[in-house]
Amino acid sequence: MDLNLSDEQRLLRESADRFVNETYTADHRRTIANDPIGFSMDIWKQFADLGWLALPIPEAHGGLGGGAIEIGILMEAFGRGLVSEPYLSTVVIGTSLISECGTEMQKQALLPKVADGSLILAFAHSERQARYDLVKVATTAKRTPDGWRIDGQKTTVLDGSAAAQIVVSARIDDGKIGLFMVPQGAAGLTSHDFPRLGSGRACNLELRDVQLPAEALLGDGSDALTAIEHAVDRAVAALGAEAVGIMQTLLDQTLEHTKFRKQFGRPLSANQVIRHRLADMAMQCDEARSMALRAALMADAEPVARSRAASGAKAKIGKCARFVAEQSVQLHGAMGVTEELDIGSYFKRLLAFEMLFGGSAHHYRRHAALGGRAVEA
Amino acid sequence: MDLTFSAEERAFEQEVRDFIAANLTPEMKRATALTPSVFSDPDIGMAWQRALHKKGWGAPGWPVEYGGPDWTPAQRWIFESECARAGVPNVNVMGVKMVGPVIIGFGSPEQKNFYLPRILSGEDYWCQGYSEPGSGSDLASLKTRAARDGDDYIINGTKIWTTHAHHANRMFALVRTNETERQQDGISFLLIDMKTPGITTRPILTIGGDHEVNQVFFDDVRVPVANRVGEEGKGWTYGKYLLEFERGSGIASAKLRDALKTISELAESDATGRAIGDPDIAVRMSEIEVDIDALEMTELRVLSALQTGQNPGAVSSLLKLRVSEIRQAVTRLGVDVIGNDGLYVEPMRPLYRLNEAPGIPEELLPVVPEYLNGRAYTIFGGSSEIQRDIVAKMVLGL
Question: In the annotation, is B246 catalytic?
Fold first, then answer.
């Protein structure tokens, strides 16, 4: 047992921290907020040069063969900088789905392009009626003489407008869930793009009679649900690490503010109620850090243990995040409720974290159900 | 004891319902539902205020000689409850509920004659100049200076969190007229015409994306001494009198119930994939409903005490704490009810006059902004930390 970073991991953290500090200034965030794709292609190329896009891809497919710990190190730094590049969509989720479902030919065709930065991916899975239940897919894929016909609606597709290829889940005639590579601009695909809470963009998709060739299906047609669950667990572990970076930033800034701001002739931090609040925030940041690490360490464990670790982390970090975020705003006073400070941006990003892939209540239920407790997941 | 209203009170309830049915337009109702800030914009709010004024209900809390309707506390309760249930516009309270009572209590006859009718009719639109960048919870440390120069004061300084300063033509402000040993003794209460040269207003956007508050700057602004309410140096007393209104203004449970009903309807609808099927959502909804029941009973107990002329005691801090916490719980539940769709950001305002149809069901749009903006409920009008200090001191005698 050793939970210390290796030398390589420490170097990765240092370079990620340095890059984020230098690149993601408040000015950069303001520029990006008005950008039509919501992030910078130049920075994405730099991610590729730094090897970050190749991190989880197997060496055989042009990658570095890294794991969830390395991803977590990057994501924590991304959280501190409120990074809006489509790392989660492309590298964490997209790569995971292709690696697990794709045929050898598909992996060879797609993964090296992810690694070199020339292919951005999105994952279109959630539907309004599903409410985070990964099994509930109403979008259909019907076999045609030439391949497939896809019909349905997808909500909150992260980075869906920037992606050259969108991985769309759909229910095949035989009841199994399939994953289909849908190119941007496919006939019958309409997209409603919008700025997303906490920076970046997303879109709602409508697929009406979208015709795809037979090879658009990832893999051989076996049910993709287990691959989706694994990809989402990996995403949850990565997002947990990102949330830790955000929470730590909020705590640091709130600590500074309460030491500096004077009311009634003394700093806010001289009041016991404030000191205790800050102590609770610090405790919750630390618990969140432990849970994010745990989810990362178990990201490739057997499915039940892995999913329980992911759900436990999502639930617990969500609770901690809510407390830390809300108290950071509270202790900044009215300024915290405005766009004048960064606090609000970090607050919104944590709220977005809670919404993505289900909130704490959903994940406590999943955790209980996977543990054999009689509840409905 | 009896929880039911009398026959006269029932008849009054029907009169209020009839009035609302005749005057609340569908446009007003929709605009109110799609407004994620505290108060309706003046075009909506003042239209409602004019309708109330026409009926003689423009200022429910005022004495009858100034145009009040002479209602019993129970009638005020019924009126506020029916208005909340129907979803009427949230009229900016700065005029009728805040500066009005101060002018009635402490103003000169000239001030009463001039200002009160203009508040009632909606001709004047008021904002409040209290907080300053360095003076939030510690309001008495305010620094905006009013120096006496003949028949004028010359004002220099800045006010912040000024709700609707960009709409208002008048401001009531606390300013420092004297450097005294006790900070509170050097403060005066002034009525300021917002068109006076030297006043500039800077918008402050909230994290929900709304422009409701501002910072206002005073650069050698001349205000006639005649615009001072009451005595010089007594402004703190008048200002505190008014803050009591801001903290406790009495009847919040009906509005909270209406807000919860909105979330409940969303949770029942396909727009949220019937979120109510999630047992966690259902249980939290009941938890909040019970909290509102408790709040409502407290409000009714206060009302009963008032009706028999008793002093309800220092409950306004207790009520402010609970109201703000319950409101935040409702907005938080809303966020969880709409799930993923909360990631959809609509930057344009007002939400009821968008150029293009939004990409999610319209009724979901205000939910996240209301949660975000709602973080201010435990901050403005004295933060929850300050309210608990007041409870400890004033209620428990610690």
Answer: yes
Residue A285 and residue A279: Cα distance in Å, rounded? 10
Q: Residues of CATH 1.10.540.10 domain(s) within chain A? A: 7-118
- Hey, what CATH topology would domain A122-216 get? Butyryl-CoA Dehydrogenase, subunit A; domain 2 (2.40.110)
Question: B376, A334: Cβ pair inside 8 Å?
Answer: yes
Nearest CA in chain A to B328: A326
Structure token pair of residue A20: 């984020």
Identity at B220, one-letter amino acid code: D
Q: Is residue B116 part of a domain?
A: no
DSSP 8-state symbol, A88:
I
pLDDT digit string, tens, across residues A232-272:
999 999 999 999 999 999 999 999 999 999 999 999 999 99
B182 interfaces chain A, CB cutoff of 8 Å:
no
What pLDDT is recorded for position A296?
97
Q: Is residue B309 part of a domain?
A: yes
* B253: enclosing H helix or E strand: helix B253-268
* B280 and B388 assigned to the same domain: yes
Could you tell me where in chain A the CATH 1.20.140.10 domains are found? 225-370
What is the model's pLDDT at position A375?
63
Q: Which residues, other chains included, contact A373 with Cβ-Cβ below 8 Å and sequence gap of 6+?
A: none
Residue type, B376: A
Cα three-residue angle B116-B122-B125, rounded to 5 degrees: 85
Q: Which residue of A has its CA nearest to B269?
A: A129
Is the same domain home to B300 and B227?
no
Contact A280, A49 (CB under 8 A): no
Least CB-CB distance to A326: which of B375, B383, B385?
A: B375
Contacts with B340 from chain A: Cβ below 8 Å: 126, 128, 132, 155-156, 355-356
Sequence-distant (≥ 6) Cβ neighbours of residue B384 within 8 angstroms = A330, B321, B324, B325, B378
* Burial class of residue B132 (count of CB atoms within 10 Å of its CB; 0-12, 13-18, 19+): buried
Write the ipTM.
0.93
Q: What tens digit of pLDDT does each residue of B250-297 get?
A: 689 999 999 999 999 999 999 998 999 999 999 999 999 999 999 999
CATH architecture of A225-370: Up-down Bundle (1.20)
List the 188-207 stretch of A: residues with Cβ below 8 A of B.
192, 194-198, 202-204
Q: What is the CATH number of the domain that holds B342?
A: 1.20.140.10
pTM for the predicted model, two decimal places: 0.94
Q: Is residue B205 located within the same domain as residue B74? A: no
Q: Of A132, A271, A348, which is closest to B339 when you measure between CB atoms?
A: A132
Please write the tens of the pLDDT for every residue from B303-350: 888 777 776 666 777 888 999 999 999 999 999 999 999 999 999 999
Backbone angles phi, psi at A236, to 5 degrees: -65, -40
Does the structure show a pLDDT above 80 at B171? yes
Interface of B with A in 48-87 (CB under 8 A): none
Query: Which of B278, B342, B347 is opposite residue A131, by nearest beta carbon?
Result: B278
CB-CB neighbors (< 8 A) of B281 in chain A:
361
